[in-house]
Design brief:
With 157 residues, this protein is of the alpha+beta class. The chain has five helices and seven strands, in the order E-H-H-E-E-H-E-E-H-H-E-E.
Length: 157
């Protein structure tokens, strides 16, 4: 639906990432994950839809928590490069098979049916949609059994 209203405001990305981490504290604790976030000192405030970005971060982080075995490590980096702010989520989870990598953002695409008892496969499709709407980019690198890295870029304007 195209009637999603995006409201752009200026906000602190590092602050938002920390809030998202707090919101997922219960799930993190349950799986005994170690989650660390690192914010580079000089990240300027971004001008974007705060709620949209929050949904993106929560979505990616939830997946990392879910697909990383107990006592996993998840690192979140917030930084700034050229004119883009970025959020990078790195986990040492189960990873995504290479042949699935370019399809994970499709609606209803589920990598392994046996893994997702209640997933509709909509999560990353929504993420992609939100990011497209504010002219950002998302990139994923993953290795089966090693982990995944999701990078979200947000244009500074």
């Amino acid at each position: 639906n195209n009637n999603v209203k995006f409201e752009k405001t200026e906000f602190d990305l590092g602050e938002l990432v920390k809030r998202c981490q707090e919101k997922l504290e219960l799930e993190i604790t349950k799986k005994h994950h170690q989650v660390e976030s690192f914010v580079t000192a000089n990240v300027p405030p971004v001008f974007a839809d705060r709620y949209g970005i929050e949904r993106v971060i929560l979505n990616i982080l939830t997946n990392s928590i879910k697909y990383t075995k107990e006592n996993g490590n998840i690192k979140i980096y917030v930084g700034f490069v050229y004119n883009d702010a970025y959020i990078k989520v790195i986990d040492n989870g189960i990873g995504i098979p290479e042949e699935d990598l370019n399809r994970i953002f499709e609606r209803f695409y589920i990598v392994d049916k046996s893994r997702s008892k209640k997933g509709t496969g909509l999560g990353l499709a929504i993420v992609k949609h939100i990011i497209k709407m504010f002219d950002g980019e998302i990139d994923v690198k993953s290795e089966l059994g090693v982990g995944s890295t999701f990078t979200v870029k947000i244009r500074k304007r």
